[in-house]
Amino acid sequence: MGTFTTKDGTEIYYKDWGTGPVVTFSHGWPLSSDSWEAQMFFMASNGYRAIAHDRRGHGRSAQPSEGNDMDTYADDLAQLLDHLDVKDATMIGFSTGGGEVARYIGRHGTKRLKKAALVSAIPPLMLKTEGNPLGTPIEVFDGLRKAFLENRSQFFIDIPSGPFYGFNRPGAKPVQGLIDFWWLQGMMGGYKGTYECIKVFSETDLTEDLKKFDIPTLIVHGDADQVVPIAAAALQSTKLIKDNKLLVYEGAPHGLTDTHRDRLNADLLAFIRS
């Protein structure tokens, strides 16, 4: 584990576990690299080098006032890969991290990459617009901002207690440990950075970035995802990425990295080895 400083002076925290072919992980909002711990441990235990960072404004990274946008997120990731001289990596992104992966490829290409994977990812565009009728109305994201400003801590309990893990579905049994861990990661993040990231993940159009993918890409999404509905996300991404494989997890919620961790780990490993 270590830190490095970006060109604009922002200190970024990262984990670097294991040896072997590289697998990088980009986390969702408002979490940190800790959200990938099950996958990182699994990969490091199976002969891979697992690298994950805390996005600026999140986790243990610095909380700058500026740069809370998708271009800068992608540039920070590019600088980390340059810093570690990563080659032939499989780049994996969850939720907002999937947007980060898409924008990284859109801005920096695939010279350091071998494959990519998008898990419960936000691309191509979450927001409902005239050209994106399947998206989520702006009023939903305005509601997120309102709840954040009213009581961030309670908001960060309500999300994992409800839609993130599908604990609001009939017959679901909430797992308090998952809820608490989600809250902890969210509260570690900066107030300004995590607030501004709501606009980033909801309004960034990644359509043109997906068209630049020229490596094999795995797309994993739950068909019961209440946070990033599959119809506007994964099913649209498959139309834009040339070489892709789609895995739909029946009944899986947004947070399938935890609820379906064993299945996901096995699917990611099989994809990387294929």
Automatic annotation (TrEMBL):
GO molecular function terms attached to this record: hydrolase activity
Keyword annotations from UniProtKB, A to Z: Hydrolase
SUPFAM superfamilies in the cross-refs: alpha/beta-Hydrolases
Domain (AB hydrolase-1) ranges: 21-255
Keyword Hydrolase: yes
UniProt keyword annotation of Amino-acid biosynthesis present: no
PANTHER family: HYDROLASE, ALPHA/BETA FOLD FAMILY PROTEIN, NON-HEME CHLOROPEROXIDASE
Similarity comment text for this entry: Belongs to the AB hydrolase superfamily. Bacterial non-heme haloperoxidase / perhydrolase family.
Protein name: Alpha/beta hydrolase
